[in-house]
Amino acid sequence: MSAFRSASTTAKMGAMRAMATAKGGAKEKKTYLEELYASVDARPRVPLLQLRRTSKGRGMVAIQDIAAGQPMVRVPMRHVISVREEGGRGFDGDARLATKLLLTLTADGEEVDEKDQRKWDLYARMLPTRTGCAALWEDKIIEEMQFLPAIESALRLKERFHCEAERAMREHSLPIHAMLWALSIVHSRSFAICTSKGERLRVLAPVADLFNHKADEPAAAGALDMRLSDGETGEAWRMVLEHDLEPCFQMSALDACKAGEEIFINYGHESNAELLISYGFLPEPNPSEFVPLYQGMSDLLDDDLLVDTPSLSTMQKIRDILLSSRSVEAPLAVRPGGIQSAGRLLGCLRVVHAKDHELGFLHEKFDRALGELIFEWETHLDGCPSRSRREEIERLAIRQCAVRTIELLAEFPTTLEEDEEILNELMLDLGTEHPKEGFGLVTTAYLKAELSDEDNSASLVDLTMAIRYRLQLKRILSEFLEEVIRMGFDEEELCMDDEL
Asked: Mean per-residue pLDDT for 265-270?
């Protein structure tokens, strides 16, 4: 029996009226999504969803109440574009999928089935002409992000995109601009799934790729990571077998949703930089956002300016504790929410500032509120440092975070206040002239055409996004610093000299 729940009579009638002939009336023209839904033999036969204008631009909205975990749409794998991920998950799979996408969408000739051609024409028309991902911005606009790790990440992905586009041109005579477009589509819309035989696939699933992203709160994200580490799956999408044993791509609801509400999925615990570089959008707020004060544990250990120099044996012990941490790769960062949200970083700095005989009382524990593993004091153990000593170490840790925050803010070419002024001016320049989303415009002719000059407003929007990105970073850092100052730290204590 199918896992889909039967819709109520009222819901069925409402959906059927939206997609078929009204009794006694003329036949209504179907939307691209309605045609595509039928073309890919999507299930359930009576859709649970509609594509509508939402606060996110456009999104999938429930026609009826949907329960958490309920399958929302299934697409037979014969209607899905897929490639095997050879050697595990990686960019090579994305590049091969982008090539296959373009070859599928631009196929023509007598050997092409008419129904297949119509199906892929409909799918193409559901795709945007541009995603806005930072990996395809001009270099000078990427530089406007101002945060070096984000700039380097965007430039690396841009270089890989261009290398793959040039290879596709050599091997398949595919236009470079079309391949760049295809790579951006794959990066923003594809899914990784496993077959029943354990093979990993990278797929583009028509209809199922129309859901918008909603970030998890840190506690939920951390709990999910813990479940994943135990071998569970926490993704809304997977391959399933229908009652007739046909493999299908299935998308299920993460949360319960009322009729008329937009349904979201979670793309991953992505920071603003990751979302902007690969997907082309910035959520406000983004509970998964963070600003790393250190680029890894070794970077933190090398920052000994504010640390009393320990003995070599104590220093080695500190290094061993931190480098063998169960979450050694976790960001050492400040996050939205101030000091309380910087638990992982502060916990590591407790270890750095502890004396040799105090280190044994610090252990990693999972903080459910923050969703992170944090070094905390075992206060129930005999010999644990006194409350006053623990508070002294905490103050040293917070001070080091604050000083690094000041240094990081000073490295930006512009201040938060200057960025706000620049952004306001840009918004006035942009006005109501936004680049066309391009939905319904992607056709075979469009993909094969020579590259044309892009809408000038697109560059303005990209610049606006870059400034919005760096503004959010500076706000997080500034709010953290303001909280530290309210705790009673003075300028001399924080090394706030004239140079800063």
From this structure: 87
**Phi, psi dihedrals of residue 218, rounded to the nearest 5°:** -55, -40
Rounded CA gap, 477 and 254, in Å? 32
Average the pLDDT over 242-263 and give the result. 91
192 phi/psi in degrees, rounded to 5: -105, 130
C-alpha 5/C-alpha 366 separation (Å) is 37
**In terms of DSSP bridges, do strands 200-204 and 81-84 run parallel, antiparallel, or are they unpaired?**
antiparallel
**Do 99 and 179 contact (CB within 8 A), yes or no?**
yes
Residues 134-137: contacts with CB within 8 Å, 24+ apart? Answer: 134/276, 134/277, 134/280, 134/462, 134/465, 134/466, 135/161, 135/184, 135/187, 135/277, 135/278, 136/161, 136/180, 136/184, 137/462, 137/466
What is the pTM for the complete model shown? 0.85
d(CA 41, CA 101): 19
**Residue 110 confidence (pLDDT):** 64
Say what percent of the chain tops pLDDT 70: 84
- Bridge partners of 441, per DSSP, are none
Burial of 410 (0-12, 13-18, 19+ CB in 10 A): exposed
In the sheet with 81-84, reading across from the earlier edge strand, the strands are 81-84, 200-204, 191-194
Question: Is residue 298 scored above 50 in pLDDT?
Answer: yes
Closest among 412, 152, 409 to 293, alpha carbons compared = 409
Report the distance separating Cα 260 and Cα 367, nearest Å: 36
At 215, phi and psi to the nearest 5? Answer: -75, 145
Q: What is the pLDDT of residues 303-317, one digit of tens each?
A: 988 888 889 999 999
Tokens of 378: 């075992």
What mean pLDDT do residues 143-149 have? 97
Amino acid symbol at 405: T
Residue 355 contacts residue 314 (beta carbons within 8 Å): yes
Q: Are 450 and 176 in contact (CB under 8 A)?
A: no
> What does the alpha-carbon distance between residue 77 and residue 249 come to, in Å, rounded to a whole number?
6
**414 is written with which tokens?**
């512009």
What tens digit of pLDDT does each residue of 447-468 get?
A: 877 655 555 668 888 999 999 9
Cβ-based neighbours of 498, under 8 Å, separated by 6 or more: none
Whole-number Å distance between alpha carbons of 89 and 41: 29
The string of pLDDT tens digits covering residues 352-382 is 999 999 999 999 999 988 888 999 999 999 9
pLDDT per residue over 94-105, tens digit each?
999 999 999 999
